[in-house]
């Protein structure tokens, strides 16, 4: 598969004891499938992969892939604190029928560039699936240099990178540096929902969307408006969705996604402790923002 277009990253609903709530998970996946996204990103940051046991992660992958049933490419997050654990998760994802892998360099001890290179090389060799580098310094405390991405991109199965928003959202310069450093066809995508419309306009290959995992049709409408060059619709949807982006920047996509899931009736779920749900007041703000967004999209 190629890491292109609009990729939606759903939450992974669990019970209070950390076990998978399979019924709720399928309810979360249904609107994503209906939105005809380009791919689904299972067990990303919004999918809470660091908080789940290995067994629950494997169960979540199997549950999701059985439900998706090949309708859309599925990418599985395999980040783990040890290399052998990521290898195990990669091999399980491949055996379960995943189409691609996504990995961030999780750590407790600060990792060096050679350590991260060796970690990715070992995992990349474990399967034939395409692997996307997840550059997420906000949670891993490790930032990939362009030179490290260049070296990793020489490994045949490492075919993409998921980047954070650049400083001052200067996508053009960063995309040029990355394109100059990587082979033709290497896919460059971004996360940070509030900036990804600009990333697509600048020529990024993929919008890796956290809120798109709970509002897939709405976020897809924005992505389509951007790609189709519909500036009026892009502006209208961007303005309507801005309050959701603002709350995401303040509280994080994980908490916001759970609040929206509850608020609009997708599933009665809560974040994994110690993370607490957002207040009823903020949840109501999100409900009202989603209702307004839906009106803007339907009137467009």
TrEMBL record:
**Which Gene Ontology CC terms are recorded?**
cytosol
Which protein is depicted? Answer: 4-hydroxy-tetrahydrodipicolinate synthase
Q: Which gene specifies this protein's sequence? A: dapA_2
Q: Which family does it belong to?
A: Belongs to the DapA family.
Q: What are the recorded GO MF terms, alphabetically?
A: 4-hydroxy-tetrahydrodipicolinate synthase activity
Q: Which Pfam families does the record match to this protein?
A: DHDPS (PF00701)
Highest taxon of source = Bacteria
Q: Write down the EC number.
A: 4.3.3.7
Top enzyme category: lyase
Instruction: Kindly indicate whether the keyword Lyase belongs to this entry.
Output: yes
List the residue ranges forming a coiled coil, or say none.
Answer: none
- SMART domains in the record: DHDPS (SM01130)
Query: Which CDD domains does this chain map to?
Result: DHDPS-like (cd00408)
Residues annotated as binding pyruvate: 46
Residues of the active site are 134 (proton donor/acceptor), 162 (schiff-base intermediate with substrate)
- Recite the UniProt keywords alphabetically: Lyase
What Gene3D superfamilies would the database entry show?
Aldolase class I
């Amino acid at each position: 598969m190629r890491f292109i277009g609009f990729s939606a990253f759903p939450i992974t609903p669990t019970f209070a004891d950390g076990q998978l709530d399979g019924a709720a998970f399928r309810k979360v996946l249904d609107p994503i499938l209906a939105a005809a996204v380009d791919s689904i990103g299972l067990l990303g940051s919004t999918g809470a992969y660091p908080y789940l046991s290995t067994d629950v992660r494997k169960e979540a992958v199997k549950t999701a892939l059985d439900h998706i049933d090949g309708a859309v490419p599925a990418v599985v997050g395999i980040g783990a604190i040890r290399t052998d654990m990521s290898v195990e998760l990669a091999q399980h994802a491949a055996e379960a029928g995943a189409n691609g892998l996504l990995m961030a360099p999780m750590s407790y001890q600060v990792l060096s560039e050679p350590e991260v290179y060796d970690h990715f090389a070992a995992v990349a060799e474990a399967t034939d699936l395409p692997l996307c580098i997840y550059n997420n310094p906000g949670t891993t405390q490790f930032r990939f240099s362009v030179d490290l991405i260049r070296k990793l991109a020489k490994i045949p199965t490492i075919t993409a990178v998921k980047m954070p928003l650049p400083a001052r959202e200067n996508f053009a310069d960063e995309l040029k540096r990355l394109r100059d450093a990587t082979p033709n066809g290497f896919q460059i995508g971004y996360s940070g929902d509030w900036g990804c419309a600009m990333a697509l306009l600048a020529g990024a290959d993929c919008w890796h969307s956290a809120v798109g995992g709970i509002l897939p049709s709405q976020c897809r409408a924005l992505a389509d408006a951007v790609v189709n060059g519909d500036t009026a619709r892009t502006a209208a949807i961007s303005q309507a969705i801005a309050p959701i982006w603002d709350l995401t920047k303040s509280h994080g996509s994980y908490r916001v996604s759970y609040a929206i899931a509850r608020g609009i009736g997708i599933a009665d779920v809560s974040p994994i402790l110690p993370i607490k749900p957002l207040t009823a007041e903020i949840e109501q703000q999100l409900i009202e923002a989603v209702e307004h967004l839906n009106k803007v999209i339907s009137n467009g």
